[in-house]
Amino acid sequence: MRIIGITGGIGTGKSTILNILKTDYNAYIVETDKLAHSLMLPGKVAYKQIVESFGSTILQEGGMIDRQMLGSIVFRDKAALQRLNGIVHPAVKSYIRDDIALKKQEGVVDYYVIEAALLIEDGYKAICDELWYIYANQDVRLARLLDGRGGDEQKWIDIMANQATDVYYQEHCDVTIDNGKDIENTILQVKQLLYK
User: Taking the domain 1-26+110-196, which CATH number applies?
Assistant: First the structure.
């Protein structure tokens, strides 16, 4: 089982790559953002620590963490964000390590794919066999974001400007997939990488 990390900026088309891998190559996909949210549910590993750290005022009526309220706390306070990340990121990584061991034991998956915006920064190179950087130029990304999510053009430009540079991704990843052309070109690149 080959373990692949997928990363890249907003609008580069990471979801397209994940879909190709899942549909055509028997890949098991883990999106770390979604996994983090599931580990924050009542009874899950990060839930108790978050409530202990931030208090019961972040809970909704049914006991669920109000992620919007928690977000408004941590994005105003750098120390609070670090505290939250110090709970959630290790929980996610621990879950993934255990899940990889389980999937290897089961032997039914060819590729285990981890998608994370902060794949490099969170040290996933130690877990993955290889890291893939998904690239598309800014014009393509901007058009995708406006088409798919709408909103203000300047907002997306600002978000992209605050993300890691192409050079940073290329220095830390093993391969770059140019996902700014047509889908056939992307499919061919993925096929070449998997059968090299």
Answer: 3.40.50.300
